[in-house]
Amino acid sequence: MSDLTHFNDQGRARMVDVSDKDETVRTAVARSSILVNETIHRQISEGTNKKGDVFAVAQVAGIMAAKNTPQIIPMCHPLPLKGIDISFKWNVDEEAGHYEVLLEASVKTKGQTGVEMEALTAASAAALTIYDMCKAAGKEMIIGPTMLLEKTGGKSGDYKRD
Amino acid sequence: MSDLTHFNDQGRARMVDVSDKDETVRTAVARSSILVNETIHRQISEGTNKKGDVFAVAQVAGIMAAKNTPQIIPMCHPLPLKGIDISFKWNVDEEAGHYEVLLEASVKTKGQTGVEMEALTAASAAALTIYDMCKAAGKEMIIGPTMLLEKTGGKSGDYKRD
Amino acid sequence: MSDLTHFNDQGRARMVDVSDKDETVRTAVARSSILVNETIHRQISEGTNKKGDVFAVAQVAGIMAAKNTPQIIPMCHPLPLKGIDISFKWNVDEEAGHYEVLLEASVKTKGQTGVEMEALTAASAAALTIYDMCKAAGKEMIIGPTMLLEKTGGKSGDYKRD
Amino acid sequence: MSDLTHFNDQGRARMVDVSDKDETVRTAVARSSILVNETIHRQISEGTNKKGDVFAVAQVAGIMAAKNTPQIIPMCHPLPLKGIDISFKWNVDEEAGHYEVLLEASVKTKGQTGVEMEALTAASAAALTIYDMCKAAGKEMIIGPTMLLEKTGGKSGDYKRD
Amino acid sequence: MSDLTHFNDQGRARMVDVSDKDETVRTAVARSSILVNETIHRQISEGTNKKGDVFAVAQVAGIMAAKNTPQIIPMCHPLPLKGIDISFKWNVDEEAGHYEVLLEASVKTKGQTGVEMEALTAASAAALTIYDMCKAAGKEMIIGPTMLLEKTGGKSGDYKRD
Amino acid sequence: MSDLTHFNDQGRARMVDVSDKDETVRTAVARSSILVNETIHRQISEGTNKKGDVFAVAQVAGIMAAKNTPQIIPMCHPLPLKGIDISFKWNVDEEAGHYEVLLEASVKTKGQTGVEMEALTAASAAALTIYDMCKAAGKEMIIGPTMLLEKTGGKSGDYKRD
Q1: Alpha-carbon distance E6 to E4, whole Å?
Q2: Among A38-47, D20-29, F51-60, which stretch is predicted with the lowest mean pLDDT?
Q3: Which of A123, C14, C124, F136 is the most exposed place for a label (fewest CB within 10 A)?
Q4: pLDDT grade, residue E8 (50/70/90)?
């Protein structure tokens, strides 16, 4: 059974030594979401159809957060990311009054550790940005669940959420 | 009905002018959570009882993220935060195999805008840090839902989630 | 005649003490520009009319750079900015083959120093971002001239470029 | 004709995937400039001859900005820069009352994308720093034009401004 | 006897709430030092007399580190610093082969917490920068002792090292 | 005799070109220390035995500072660090009233320059964090001496302090 490798002999956190790992192409895809009210749904949708694009700002926020992940997550290794993308999809059931944005963040690198944290951080930052830009119309929005959908590359093998 | 105030005449995002708002004490409390497996629950719990304290690292990550919120959330105003705290609580049902960490982040400032985003960002970063430190023992962890519990101060009045 | 106040007795740079200055509302507007070729003009324009909005990304870059100015400009005082906006305008003469984007960045604060540098930095970062996103279609783009258009507030009085 | 590769299928910005590109040595040289008045010219020149060296501060600002480019330019890839240098040259015509500082920033890396943006950002930050340190003696300074002088390395080949 | 106020009820670190403290002018002066060999002493001194000024770079590093202190020291409050200065003095005894740079960093703000950490961080960063720029000529340099010389302002009163 | 390689022909600082150096595994270990009073010694020790762990926060601060070294030390090359660890040891002589924390920071990378600065910066930031968290119980603490204990890898060979 695996132990918490992030701790040293003194029981305190360290950034694990990965210098022996292989440098391979690694990808990760994470999902988050944000549940909004009808007003916010209409505002974002209309904005997107015209020019005021909440998702465009969230996109930039997510991409920059992916690059800043080692500054946000203390034990996360710095990695020269090679590609980052984020997509948005509405999941709406008007009758049920359900208005939800699904976000997917994809990150790619060639390095000695995986990019799960970068994908998860990108998705979280994008969702938080949507919250920030829409909170004047309703503070009850709910972010998440946020989770890893899949990863490839590295010794621990590929992962795909069922 | 309120519009999306974060957009200018050209339909592009701006950081809203708050220079006319009152400078008052403002607080916000946000919650996030992370669902883990039994192994991770045991590792964190044992570590906490000894010295290897996952939550101690998550605490620092959340506090630093609160201070960095204006760099993470593009349209968020910079604020000289006056106090930040984060607490952790286990919500466990062993029979149901349910192991969940509840996180609450409290932020306080005296300024012209609220600190909802700082509290939400702190809670998210703390949860992401737990994910990072435990992912070797299970990548299926689920972060969130993440939400605002309450806020005080400012013209829009207090908010308390039902 | 004024001396270079940014130097101490040893002739080395310091961040000037402004603690005796009045805390007043201060604004600044700066302009930059970027000269592009016909292809880039068409790509940006079409993107803007559809959804791929180069200016939306440049907008976010400029706003975040304004907030980061004290980290970019060494002797610049940190200030809690209250409002930031950026606008874009095409200056096109098709016959002359002249395609130019004019950018204006407006920044507002209430503090003890002015926000000229924040406005100039925002305009510069927004122009650099346009360069970055369009450089695959022509590296000969020219940024600037970049200049202060006006400022208000503070002891040195208002300034307006002729 | 090349398209705007910085956009995904949803028409929103992404950080382009470069993981298939070759890792080669890449260099870029960018130029900026700043037009100052006679007083500022004398202050900088005398400072340089003695000890208060405006250019020394601008140099540090430019080098640090080059390293921070992926935080300033949203879609720019992070790269482990290998060398950065900046040089300054006066272009003065006393009779015409023309006092101009020319700045050249050179950046080198070994990586999968070019360093044009790092060179342009370094030159811009250095020029902005000169503005900041001299603005007490005249806010009418003009920064730029800022442009790429040359680049080498990478699939798109070398570039040299005529 | 004072307790460790930086811990919450769960025994984990928090950023202490200072919103009830008075906003007053606060200053702090910290000292560090770096012991170098004869070669480095000569190189720095000659450089300073000509143009290559190690201390000029260390000066900028210290000033920027003072502004970044809340990002470097996790529980440190963000403060809008009003003035920062650093000075350098040689303490040399050629017969004893003793070559030491003394650094003093002064920081001033108007706020609800003191600036001891900003002064100590500035002095440390400046000393580290000297190490970095001279390490090719001798890695045995010794930094420190680093200490607070004095502080003024705030409820806990003034402090002056004997 | 080696010159100051950090200066260009104009006598101003540059980030030295290292693109011709070999990419090898490199390690560095640095030491710092902090001298505290009896009260602080007791507070930290009791906290460590329970849950309020000053060293846990200092550990995170040191690890994040190692990753931020190129933003703190102006001429320092950015490097993708592979492992970082910090350990703490009490050096106590109760009769002499001597209470000192010894800190050791170890950093590892695979790259074209060494990691001495990262190790020294990590040790310094960890010591500064201890100062910050304990300063309410005594501002007379002394940080350092801070020094390099050893390094391996790179053309200049290994170094070990006597």
Answers
A1: 5
A2: F51-60
A3: F136
A4: confident
Among A8, A10, A19, beta carbon nearest to F82: A19
Q: Please provide the average confidence, as pLDDT, over all residues in chain E.
A: 92
Collapse the DSSP code of C17 into the 3-class scheme (helix H, G, I; strand E, B; otherwise coil) and give the result.
coil
Chain F residues whose CB is inside 8 A of the B48 CB are 51
Under the phi-then-psi rule, with left for phi > 0, alpha for psi from -120 to 50, and beta for the rest, what region is A153? left
The rounded average pLDDT for each run of 10 residues, N- to C-terminus, in chain D (162 residues) is: 68 88 94 97 77 85 98 96 96 97 96 95 98 94 98 90 90
Pairwise CA distance, residues D150 & A72, whole Å: 36
CB contacts, 8 Å: D128 with chain C: 72-73, 117, 120-121, 124
In order, the DSSP letters of A31-70 are EEEEEE-HHHHHHHHHHHHSS--HHHHHHHHHHHHHHHHH
Which of A48, A60, A87, A132 to mutate: most C Cβ within 10 Å?
A60
Judged by a CB distance cut-off of 8 A, whether residue D29 touches chain F is: no
Least CB-CB distance to F140: which of E11, E124, E161? E161
Question: Which structure tokens are listed for B32?
Answer: 């996030």
Alpha-carbon torsion (B47, B52, B55, B56), positive or negative: positive
Q: Chains that contact B by 3+ CB pairs under 8 Å?
A: A, C, E, F
* Single-letter residue type at A1: M
pLDDT tens, position by position, D106-147: 999 999 999 999 999 999 999 999 999 999 999 999 999 999
Backbone angles phi, psi at E127, to 5 degrees: -65, -45
Q: What is the helix (H) or strand (E) element at residue D26, kind and residue range? A: strand D24-36
> Is residue C2's pLDDT more than 60?
no
Give me the catalytic one of C22, C53, C132, C158: C132
Q: What confidence category does residue B19 fall into, taking pLDDT thresholds of 50, 70 and 90?
A: confident
Strand ranges (DSSP E) for C8-140?
24-36, 81-93, 98-111
pLDDT for A24 beyond 60: yes
The residues pairing with E93 across neighbouring beta strands, listed in sequence order, are E98
> What is the value of ipTM here, to two decimals?
0.95
Specify which residues B86 forms β-bridges with.
B105
Token pair for residue B148? 């605002």
> HEC string of B33-79?
EEEECHHHHHHHHHHHHCCCCHHHHHHHHHHHHHHHHHHHCCCCCCC
Which of D129, F36, D156 is CA-nearest to residue C136? D156
Return mean pLDDT, chain A: 92
B75 assigned binding-site residue: yes
Cβ distance of E13 and B56 shorter than 8 Å = yes
> Model-level pTM?
0.96
Across the interface, whether the CB atoms of F56 and B61 are under 8 A apart is answered: no
Using alpha carbons only, what angle is made at residue B161 by residues B156 and B162, rounded to the nearest 5 degrees?
130
Helical residues (DSSP H) of chain B, grouped into ranges: 38-49, 54-72, 116-134
Amino acid at B60: V
Instruction: Give the tens place of pLDDT for each residue, B114-149.
Output: 999 999 999 999 999 999 999 999 999 999 999 999
- H helices of chain F, in order, are 38-49, 54-72, 116-134
Q: Judge contact between F71 and D67, C-beta under 8 A.
A: yes
Flag whether residue F74 sits within 8 Å of chain E, measured between CB atoms.
yes
> D48 to chain E: which residues are within 8 Å by CB?
51
Contact F83 A12 (CB under 8 A): no
Tokens of A46: 């209309």
The DSSP secondary-structure symbol of E75 reads T
Helix, strand, or coil (residue A154): coil
Q: Establish, for the pair of chains A and C, how many residue pairs have beta carbons separated by less than 8 Å.
A: 18
Q: Collapsing DSSP states into helix, strand and coil, what is residue A99? A: strand
